[in-house]
Design brief:
The chain is α/β, with parallel strands linked by helices. It contains 5 helices and 15 strands. It has a 15-stranded mixed beta sheet that branches. The chain is elongated, with a radius of gyration of 20 Å. It starts with a strand and ends in a 5-residue tail after the last helix.
Length: about 260
């Protein structure tokens, strides 16, 4: 890879701190420039939560690679023990770039983005109305709703019975959390897969619920209307120095199958 501005992100102190220092110094010696404000290459040490936090801290700008020091490491290409291999790859290879879509979250309070999911979760049931392209699709009571991109389909959405999305990147989906089914709400549309051109409007009322963007709590009390859709002009860039894609991530992290 051609030398460029880079940043190393670690939200937790690692016992192998000397490895990070050696990595940083080697990149500096080879012409890379340490840049905290506007790096081109962002090297994240941690798990998937750290990766998503780094994406939000850098507003989704730059190219990202995750060195897994957590448990699952869904987004990772390397483990902590593979730092020497990673360093060699960075210096000798040009990365392939995987482009992933962002969800746009818009309310009266804020406008933000999410790479994985937008979650509304309540301790008790709240009233939820789902509008698709300004037309009422579903009206029920539930404990919340999860709206996610394909990379979220094997996470919270998967636990709600939503299908895994393997190779499609221009769709997203939602699933209600524990929707009420009774004589008042016979058959709510509790799950749906949507195209990139579809826009959801969610109305939450009749109780208090917490809002999370990519697992990061934004507020503890939400009772409002917000819109979610694709950010067509924004894509996250994952830098791969090894072969990796969503299919391989699902095999490794979900199915537990190792490719030969």
């Amino acid at each position: 890879m051609e030398p460029c501005p880079f940043s190393i992100v670690s939200y937790h102190r690692l016992p192998e701190r000397n490895l990070l220092d050696k990595l940083c110094q080697t990149l500096l010696d080879r012409g890379f420039v340490l840049e905290e404000d506007n790096p081109e290459l962002i090297i994240v040490f941690g798990g998937d939560g750290s990766f998503l936090k780094a994406v939000h801290d850098h507003d989704g700008k730059g190219k990202y690679v995750l060195i897994n020091t957590g448990h699952l490491g869904f987004f990772s290409d390397y483990s902590l023990e593979e730092i020497p291999e990673f360093l060699q790859d960075v210096l000798e290879k040009d990365p392939s770039i995987e482009s992933l879509p962002f969800l746009s979250y818009l309310s009266q309070r804020e406008e933000s983005l999410a790479l994985s999911d937008v979650v509304v979760q309540a301790d008790k049931t709240v009233d939820i109305s789902v509008y698709l392209n300004d037309r009422l699709l579903c009206e029920t009571k539930a404990s919340g709703i999860v709206i996610g991109t394909p990379v979220a389909s094997t996470a919270y959405l998967g636990s709600l019975g939503s299908p895994a999305i393997i190779n499609a990147t221009d769709v997203y989906q939602y699933a209600l959390i524990a929707p009420v089914r009774n004589s008042l709400y016979l058959n709510p549309v509790d799950k749906a897969i949507l195209s990139r051109d579809d826009v959801l409007e969610i109305e939450v009322s009749g109780g208090k619920a917490a809002l999370y963007l990519d697992g990061i709590r934004k507020t503890e009390a939400i009772s409002e209307t917000f819109r979610v859709g694709f950010l067509s002009s924004r894509r996250l860039k994952l830098a791969h120095f090894r072969e990796n894609d969503n299919f391989r991530r699902i095999l490794r992290s979900v199915s537990g199958i190792k490719e030969e």
